[in-house]
Please model this.
Amino acid sequence: MSSSDDKPTANDHISSVPTQKAPGTVYYPAAGSGVAEVKVILSGFVVHGYLGVKTLVVKTLAVILSLASGMSLGKEGPYVHIATCVGNIACRLFSKYNHNDGKRREVLSAAAASGVGVAFGAPIGGVLFSLEEVSYYFPPKTLFRTFFCCIVASLSLKFLNPYGTGKIVIFEVRYVTDWKFFEIFVFILLGALSGALGALFIKACAIWARTFRKIPAIKKWPVLEVALVALVTGLVSYWNRYTKLTVTELLFDLASPCQHDTSSGLCPKDGSEILYIIRYLGIAFVIKSLLTTVTFGIKVPAGIYVPSMVVGGLLGRI
Model:
């Protein structure tokens, strides 16, 4: 079974993955993104306590606090984990799903897709995410059911209207001019550079985990690392407008075209302001890159999708 609290069956292809023993102040199943662990569960492994009621409550409350802290983290990964917890708990109400691994995985796949659909306001994107990334068992009949689940989740989001705009997306940008053919070479260069920086980011995260997080005090008290990262984030980000902005506002400013009434400070009025804006964005790019590296992996609910979009948006705007 892929349930978090049910006992594993006697099937040979299912293994049990014990959860890490945590200090009293850390509940490991609620920490991090959760997408990787959801993939493990959907592949047939049992991770005890990872999709239970306690994880749902703790992660829901903790993701609110972590997002409000202003640290360089996202909500998309935790949304997937929270939605999968809801799906797993719902399965316990019906014996048809509670005692059938295949049926349960269909529900968990649909729940994970709805989490992405709500996070990005993209129900079709949620279906594709579940199909391509997290699901190992995805029969054709599940495709429509997953899409229907994402549609209902998106309609619920629109009805609740958490952004106050009447839309299911965080922000909306309209372009009135088309791109020119010569710009395609800039896009190719930007894509290659982004891929190289992505590989560098992965190595930097691995080095940080093998060095700083191996310090005895940090291993013993993970909350200390969270406090240090939050303190450094506040001290470093305050002095730059683009690192101080919320993720939503920053992405909107970076993606918005230059207009006469723009107030983002990203559109030069004359040639003398171009170097100043590039320098300002360059500083923000370095700060956001470093903060994302040290924030990824701390013991709070944290996604990596939106911080990556912010770093890539800064690079593209430069």
About this structure: The longest helix spans residues 183-211. The first strand starts at residue 16 and ends at 17. The mean pLDDT is 80.
